[in-house]
Design brief:
alpha+beta, 4-stranded antiparallel β-sheet, 27% strand, binds magnesium ion, 4 helices, Creatine Amidinohydrolase
């Protein structure tokens, strides 16, 4: 069942969303060659706790950190470590926070120093596919209109969307109904209504869409080990169109 939120609930989700957005703004400042993913994680947790908010991923199914940090061929769920970022890497940073009973969830992929043209295009295409998906989050549309907008743009650009991981409803729980695949046929799926809160999150690969999980049981990588990007926003469906909740 897809839970509809009222304006008071959305107010609280805006706060959770803004905290997450602030963390990702900090990440844009500090991601550079030499910094470790563990240090990024420390900065993120410190910022979230300043608000007496709770890092949403820490302890979630046993995940050990505040951020998911996924470098290069890592798609999602990378665990922060003493790995230092290198010039030419790309890093996907996914952050969730729980504040006053409600969740915010957002992700970005950042360049580390100078990156290849292929990787720069990957980041641009993934970010744009998220924008196009969000633009379909309209009252009266169908859920897979979002999915189709993401998939068609990505594939037009010669890249692929990950099938095994999807976006989700969000609110009092981090993962609520519905699941939001990044692929699908337009005009299908549940009808979108005012009050829905959706975490839309394209994961885009330069090569094939297939992925696998490493021995740490968390880190998801592309099967062909080519690069992957991930952008995500928590979005509210409002009378006047989509509102991005994970922004400053
Ligand atoms: Mg996320
Ligand atoms: Mg999510």
């Amino acid at each position: 069942m897809i839970e509809l939120k009222n304006m008071e609930q959305f107010d609280r989700m805006r706060t959770a969303g803004r905290i997450v957005a602030e963390v990702l703004e900090i990440m844009k400042e500090v991601v550079k060659p030499g910094i470790t993913t563990k240090e990024l994680d420390r900065l993120a947790e410190e910022h979230i706790r300043k608000y007496d908010a709770i890092p949403a991923f820490k302890g979630y199914n046993g995940f050990p950190a505040t951020l998911c940090t996924s470098v290069n061929e890592e798609v999602v769920h990378g665990i922060p470590s003493l790995r230092a970022l290198k010039n030419g890497d790309i890093i996907s940073i996914d952050c969730g926070a729980l504040f006053d009973g409600y969740y915010g969830d957002s992700a970005i992929t950042l360049p580390v120093g100078e990156i290849s043209n292929d990787d720069a295009k990957l980041l641009a295409v993934c970010e744009e596919s998220l924008k196009l998906g969000i633009a379909q989050a309209l009252k009266g549309n169908r859920l897979f209109d979002i999915s189709y907008a993401v998939q068609s743009y990505v594939e037009e650009n010669g890249m692929s969307v990950v099938r095994d991981y999807v976006g989700h409803g969000i609110g009092r729980k981090m993962h609520e109904d519905p699941q939001i695949p990044n692929f699908g046929k337009p005009g299908r799926g549940p009808r979108l209504e005012i009050g829905m809160a959706l975490a839309i999150e394209p994961m885009v690969n330069l090569g094939g869409y297939q992925v696998e999980t490493l021995e740490d049981k968390w880190t998801v990588v592309t099967k062909d080990r080519r690069a992957s990007a991930h952008f995500e926003h928590t979005v509210a469906i409002m009378e006047n169109g989509p509102e991005i909740l994970t922004r400053i």
